[in-house]
Amino acid sequence: MQRPKFSLIPSFQLNAELVLSRIAELAVRTEPAEPLTLLKDDPDNRFLELAKATKSDFLITGNSRDFQFATFYETQILNPSRYWNHYKPKD
Question: Which helix (H) or strand (E) holds 18?
Fold first, then answer.
């Protein structure tokens, strides 16, 4: 949220904080049992650990440099636009 590119978007910080606050209210905390070291950027491995532990349907990331595979166990790895265009919940 602190990256310079986001400062160009009016009210980004406020909107992001509101979304993160709502997520924190609804989230179920999970501690993965198995540490993974599949990705070169080690902090990104935490996302894979959580996806595996929770049997997530999707892992949505714009980080195509590190997440160069389409699936991980049962989890589809998608960029935000692909998810939005193909998988978003229907009204």
Answer: helix 12-26
Helix (H/G/I), strand (E/B), else coil: 83:
helix
Q: How many CB atoms lie within 10 A of CB 82?
A: 13
Backbone angles phi, psi at 77, to 5 degrees: -105, 120
Q: Tell me how far apart the terminal alpha carbons of the chain are, to the nearest angstrom.
A: 29
Report the mean per-residue pLDDT for the chain: 91
* β partners of residue 58: 76
pTM of the model: 0.74
Q: Which of 6, 27, 5, 26 is nearest to 16 (CA)?
A: 6
